[in-house]
Amino acid sequence: MKNPNRETVLKLEHLPNIGKKMASYLEIADIKSPQSLIGEDAFFLYDKLCNRTGKKFDPCVIDIFMSAIDFMEGGEPSAWWEFTSERKKIG
């Protein structure tokens, strides 16, 4: 699949690194559209996901959230693991 147009993409699962499962995790954290990722914090979304489900998810979920937020805020599509070192510095 080619990279989506961040201005017109309608479905979360059409974003780089986001499949159906990750889209459902974002929806649990109140993200209903790709555009609603703009200005969000991946750590906050992760905490919301964990609190609402009562489960502790792998921290790599934060990396995936970071990659989707970065893309929607104008970044180039990047593999989610490229955000791991940034997450470890922040968290």
Largest sheet: none
CATH architectural group: Orthogonal Bundle
Can you count the beta strands? 0
Helix content: 40-55%
**Helix and strand sequence:** HHHH
Roughly what fraction of the amino acids lie in strands? under 5%
The count of domains is 1
Task: Calculate the terminal CA-CA distance, rounded to whole Å.
Answer: 32 Å
Give the CATH class. Answer: Mainly Alpha
Rounded radius of gyration (Å): 12 Å
Envelope shape? globular
CATH names the topology as: DNA polymerase, domain 1
Low-confidence stretches: none
Number of helical regions: 4
Mean pLDDT: 95
Structural class: mainly alpha
Descriptive overview:
This protein is mainly alpha-helical and 91 residues long. The chain has one domain: DNA polymerase, domain 1 (Orthogonal Bundle), CATH 1.10.150. 45% of the residues lie in helices and 0% in strands. The chain contains 4 helices and no strands.
Brief descriptors of the model:
mainly alpha, DNA polymerase, domain 1, 91 residues, 4 helices
Condensed summary:
The protein has four helices and no strands.
List the helices and strands and how they pair.
Layout lengths: L19 H9 L13 H12 L6 H13 L11 H7 L1
Helix pairs in contact: 2-3
